[in-house]
């Protein structure tokens, strides 16, 4: 049985998806009354970055998952 | 914008004029064609089109560097409290060392702390460290490759086994890291790391660019021409560096201006050393026996059959994207000049 090759983009995807998920947790925590003492915290930059990272990196992880994409 | 112009004016001393652009061309073209950190990425591409696209994509991303290194500083300068006082009281590094205040170099971390809460701050710092690490990793692997492949394998030990060369590559990586740490201590007291890097660029990259460009494009260039051109260019650049260290008045002759600032020095070293390298290479080449054209195939443009890069549509052509990058580059320069 041939082993599927891992694309470097899949690795980038899961790595940054993990970042996105961690930030998402922090962003939701801040949204419910635990805003940090930073400037413009009312704009919720952590939550927005988390949403962007999670969406973008979910796409990357799925797009370059080992079974469908070869590094060649 | 007006504020930005004043800041630029303060740091530069005076506005740039036409002849000041040329030294920049030597250093930047030299960087893209002879810096092994850049070249090794092109050499490792899996197709000709990827190899051509690599520096084009790199150049597009490189244009965003001022956004990271200049914009946070300009925003910090523009931030004022309600009473009109400045939010950040930044001072030069030498003053900060004595008084404990924040120096100009601290602006990026200060802005990160100001705007990024827990989590996002970690991501920002991770991104900065990742940037430093990828640059360091690239430089160290370039050092290891050049030493093992081009020096050790080519001159010192030509007939060793692959296992031996791999071990040598690993050891040179470790030693390269130790040397780079030692070098960091050496330049710790330099006014700016940028001065040091630019000085090294003007010593080695600028004359090497002259040799590489002539060797690639000119059939008549000979081995002796390349050797003596490179040697004279490098020695001239180091000579000018020593001259200005011994006698600061030398800068006005090198930079052809009595108003020249220290940062201009390395740019002019680069220009002069490039001109000397090209001049000596041309003269020595014309005085030595030409190399038969048959031997130059695969080495010199014009006597080498160029394979197709496989680009079918306009969107796949590297030349198209190169033109896009150049147009954006000129627009940015005109807007922020």
Automatic annotation (TrEMBL), chain A:
Keyword hit for Transmembrane helix: yes
Domain of life of the native organism: Bacteria
Residue intervals passing through the bilayer: 7-26
Keyword terms, alphabetized: Membrane, Transmembrane, Transmembrane helix
Name of protein: Uncharacterized protein
Lineage of producing organism: Bacteria, Pseudomonadati, Acidobacteriota, Terriglobia, Terriglobales
TrEMBL record, chain B:
GO MF annotation: an example: D-glucose:sodium symporter activity
Bilayer topology annotation: Multi-pass membrane protein
The UniProt record lists the keyword Magnesium: no
Pfam families noted in UniProt: SSF (PF00474)
Keyword Membrane attached: yes
Domain of life assignment: Bacteria
One annotated Gene Ontology cellular component of this protein: plasma membrane
Entry's transmembrane regions: 21-39, 59-79, 120-147, 167-187, 199-218, 224-246, 267-287, 319-336
Keywords carried by this UniProt record: Membrane, Transmembrane, Transmembrane helix
Compartment(s) of residence: Membrane
Chief location: membrane
Family, per entry: Belongs to the sodium:solute symporter (SSF) (TC 2.A.21) family.
Name this polypeptide is given: Na+/proline symporter
